[in-house]
Amino acid sequence: MIGVVGESLIDIVEKNELIGGCAFNVAIAASRLGAPVTYFGKVSGDEYGSRILERMIDNDILFDPQLCGAKEPTLCSKAVLDNEGRASYVFDYKGTAACSITEDELSAAFANEGDIDMVFFGSISLLMEPGCDAVFPAIKTIEGSPVKFLDPNIRPSLVKDPQGFRKMILDYASQCDLVRVSDEDLSYLFPETDASQAEQSLLKICKGSLIVTRGAKGSTWYGKNFRSDCDAYSVNKVEDTIGCGDTFDGAVMAYLDRNDFIRKIDDIDQKTASEILRYASVAAGLNCLSKGCEPPTSEQVERVGNDVVLQ
User: Which member of 63, 197, 203, 238 has the greatest number of CB atoms within 10 A?
Assistant: First the structure.
């Protein structure tokens, strides 16, 4: 079982209300691509919360009922698209369900599941007080020491203490088995440092493997003794890029699950890393064909062509 920890919310994009949130999108992507997923996040009892629950049920995502029906309202964000379909976000999370989870609640939810092989976390769930203080301590209580996958997916507008936040993210990276960062994340984590040096600096800190994504410029997997590069998968018409990184993360986990690599990440070789990146890149590219985050199914990815390796 893959556990996904973090926020669900409503993205308001050009007057459209879209269900989103980094962690929630990752859960949707991984499940649509065939992985067993449980979502760990607090969901409001309001109308938006009901829509979020329906989307989980429709996508075969498990959840803990005790984390649902919260009295606090659903978090809403405003997304503004640029000319290339890239989104920037404005959040007002205070007093919402997404930030109200406690360490005890999260630890209890993990114990109720009892079978977590991999846990994904990151993004604004690590910034929204007071719930941000619950996430990593609760993850460390999970029995069986699951594989930890971090995507910081940094939203600078929410960071109150940049130096302290950078230190926290790098500390988490040193304790995780897999880390995925965008080129924008790297620029924030290592300001006034060129991209190549920033990648090498983070690689030295990471306990396990590191994935760097660069949008249309492709992605790289850094293993213990190799580097594997992959071109981005391009589509004819991009509606927007909302959820592309989240879809990429979900696709990586689905591939690892499908091929029994979750507990064997250190055994992944250069060829396999290239196949994983290609699979995730195609999934992320297909997500661009729709407004908002609408990850493809495994069947849709397979139809792209024989150059996508599926076992």
Answer: 63
Average pLDDT over residues 53-75: 96
Q: H helices then E strands: how many in the chain?
A: 10, 13
Question: What predicted TM-score, i.e. pTM, was given to this entire model?
Answer: 0.93
Residue 14 reports pLDDT greater than 80: no
What was the pLDDT predicted at 311?
Answer: 35
CA distance 107 to 138: 5
Look at residue 234 and tell me if it is in a domain: yes
- For residue 207, report the phi and psi dihedrals to the nearest 5 degrees: -70, -40
DSSP run (H or E) holding 281: helix 270-287
Query: Sign of the CA dihedral 146, 308, 217, 155?
Result: negative
Phi-psi region of 12 (alpha: psi -120 to 50; beta: other; left: phi over 0): beta
If you count them, how many residues does the chain have?
A: 311
What is the CATH number for 106? 3.40.1190.20
Number of domains in the chain: 1
